[in-house]
Amino acid sequence: MSNATSSATIRPEEAAHFGKLAADWWDPKGSSAMLHRLNPVRLGFVRAAIDGHWSGDSRQIRPLSGKRALDVGCGAGLLCEPLARLGAAVTGVDAAQENVAAARAHAAGAGLSIDYRCGDVAGLSLSGFDLVTSMEVIEHVADKASFLSALAGALAPDGLMVLSTPNRTAKSRLLLIEAAERIGMVPRGTHHWDDFVTPDELADLLGDAGLTMGVPRGIAWSPGKGLHLSDDLALNYIVTAISA
What we know:
By secondary structure, the chain is of the alpha/beta class. It has seven helices and nine strands, in the order H-H-E-H-E-H-E-E-H-E-H-H-E-E-E-E.
């Protein structure tokens, strides 16, 4: 039986699905291989967004020194650990206890101090974070408006939010669900196309939460480049948001 948490924004079946993958999360050739390929692309965007938001020097090794970062839907910590290495005091939240246990064990092995918590971000009374991230998560939550409201509530007034999610297009249905899940690049049952959010829909949801969305960047795939940042938003996109 899974130890997944249930609440208003969390779908228990989604948390259970990802909890079952916990032991394999850090294996770059395992069931989370696609996340390992995606992570450097996301990190490149996040680093540029950090430097842009706080007018930092791109050569600085620890641009988040003295800042607090929150990653929601953190899994086993694939983004939390790089954020910690960038200098942030990091909190990671996930709905599956199995993921939190795997994240804590991996961080301990890496000598990193990260505050991992299991639960729904809406029920944890988190606030004052300079950076809030949530990657490939909003498409899995039960109540997108409540989820984004909780993220906004955790963000400091002058903070930066970064979100990524698949777009709801014919291309994403073909490549992310029908192709990737069929050939085993992504575990079956990971994605539900009807839950994908378009950039316009996300902008409206963020606006309702008191946030202004930046210009989205696509995360595209090609045989020559693999996954990369692009102007093509049809498959997946990543975007910033700040207080309106």
